[in-house]
Amino acid sequence: MPEEVARKPSRIQLRNRKRIMEAALEVFSQHGYRGATLDQIADAAGMSKPNLIYYFDGKEAIHVALLNRLMEDWLAPLHEMDPGGDPLDEILAYVRRKMEMSREFPRESRLFANEILQGAPRMGPHLERGLKPLFDEKAAVIADWVAEGRLAQIDPRQLLLSIWAITQHYADFDAQIRVLIPDEVAGWDAAFAHVEAMFRTMLTVSERSG
Predict the structure, then answer these.
(1) CATH of residue 76
(2) Per-residue pLDDT reduced to its tens digit, 126-139
(3) Which domain holds residue 114?
(4) I need a surface site. Which of 11, 24, 72, 91 has the fewest CB within 10 A?
């Protein structure tokens, strides 16, 4: 007798999985993987622990599901960098998108940072198979732009690392920034303008070198 085709999850199941993922994101971003517990996640999701375990085998399964989703979202803006576009426009668009992600998704950024600080025990394969090839590909594109004289002389790999370090700082150190710059709206406007101006100045080919 042929095996039964796996049933698609119902709307209720999809909704409950989404509730669990959202609750887990909040708990993991606050406490890290080691400090988070299934009880905390269940409480945040408003359901019992046995009900939660019906959807996920345990804490690690939830964490891995979140990381898988995060990697897709996190890499999307880098995928969008177009080798056929204007080099400065393409890189500045990437910088702006990374800033937007830090403003819109600070918990996701902290989840990623916590995983990396622990040595990426659950994310290592994604870094090797997903991030590394894309990083090398886009670094080569930037290197071509530099060689063509369309960007200032710069190390492409260090440029990408600097973009990540600066833009993600606004998410990972959100609590500190809120104290230092209490006006959130004005602070973000200033941050966008400052970061874009900094990279524009860094990457623009000077007339003297032309």
Answers:
(1) 1.10.357.10
(2) 788 889 999 999 99
(3) 64-204
(4) 11
Q: Do residues 52 and 81 share a domain?
A: no
Please tell me the distance from the alpha carbon of residue 60 to that of residue 81, in angstroms, as a whole number.
33
**Residue at 209 is within a domain:** no
- 156 and 135 in a single domain? The answer is yes
Q: Is 49 inside a domain boundary?
A: yes
Domain-embedded: residue 2 = no
Tokens of 48: 């019992």
Nearest to 20 by CA among 42, 50, 35: 42
> pLDDT digits over 178-195, tens only?
999 999 999 999 999 999
Neighbour-count burial of 91, counting CB atoms closer than 10 A to its CB (0-12 exposed, 13-18 middle, 19+ buried): buried
Question: And the tokens for 175?
Answer: 């609590």
32-81 pLDDT, tens per residue? Answer: 888 999 999 999 999 999 999 999 988 999 998 888 888 888 889 999 99
- Count up the domains in the chain and report the number: 2
Dist. CA 2–CA 130, nearest whole Å: 36
Token look-up 């804490």 returns 59
